[in-house]
Specification:
- A hairpin with a 4-residue loop joins strand 7 and strand 8.
- 36% of the residues lie in helices and 28% in strands.
- The strands form 2 sheets. Strands 1-2-3-4-5 form a 5-stranded antiparallel beta sheet. A 4-stranded mixed beta sheet has the order 8-7-6-9, covered by helices on one side.
- It is α+β, with helices and mostly antiparallel strands.
- The protein is elongated.
- It is built from 3 helices and 9 strands; from the N terminus they run ββααββββββαβ.
Length: 179
């Protein structure tokens, strides 16, 4: 934590550059095996073509659809690994900056700490996230790429009086009340 010019407290969390979700290796292996089997089914569909045209088309279509799903999953993994997240928390605001290295875009979202009605916390290891709810915005902050530093964000928000609802513990979700 550092003090910024106006005397308040500020923390900045930056995502780890090489962070990978838990299970990424086995997922890549499954994608590879799935694509290999799709190729085999396309070969079988080509062999069945002279005997049953319609069945061959159905097999080839299913193999292509499955391959498309696998390719999109691989693309999503690469896209997630190319994003960099920066979360800045001060006494009065939370600012999330997302830099998308794949599409060369940058987005920033801000909410005021005093306006946060509650925060939904999803503690799952491969997709830890906190969603800050206000009356004017909903800011989803991915914590999984922050590594062990993500607990600092939770402690900071709790220290500022933000009601953190842990969905894994079945904490009750408060009603959105306009302040």
């Amino acid at each position: 934590m550092a003090q910024y010019p106006t005397g308040g407290i500020k923390i900045t969390l930056v995502s780890d550059p090489g962070i990978r979700r838990v299970g990424t290796g086995p997922l890549w292996a499954a994608i590879g095996v799935g694509l290999a089997f799709s190729m085999l089914w396309l070969i079988v569909a080509a062999g069945v073509l002279p005997h049953n045209f319609y069945w061959s088309i159905i097999m080839a279509s299913a193999a292509c659809a499955f391959s498309t799903l696998l390719i999109y999953t691989g693309y999503s993994i690469i896209r997630d690994q190319k994003r960099r997240f920066t979360l800045e928390l001060t006494d009065c605001e939370a600012v999330l900056t997302v830099v998308d290295g794949m599409h060369h875009r940058k987005a920033t979202q801000m909410v005021l700490i005093d306006d946060i009605v509650y925060a939904e916390y999803y503690p799952y290891r491969d997709s830890a996230t906190i969603i800050l709810h206000t009356n004017y915005a909903r800011m989803e902050v991915p914590l999984w790429p922050m590594g062990d530093k993500s607990q600092d964000a939770l402690d900071f928000l709790a220290g500022r009086g933000v009601n953190i609802v842990n969905v894994q513990s079945d904490d009750p979700v408060p009603d959105m009340v306009i302040k």
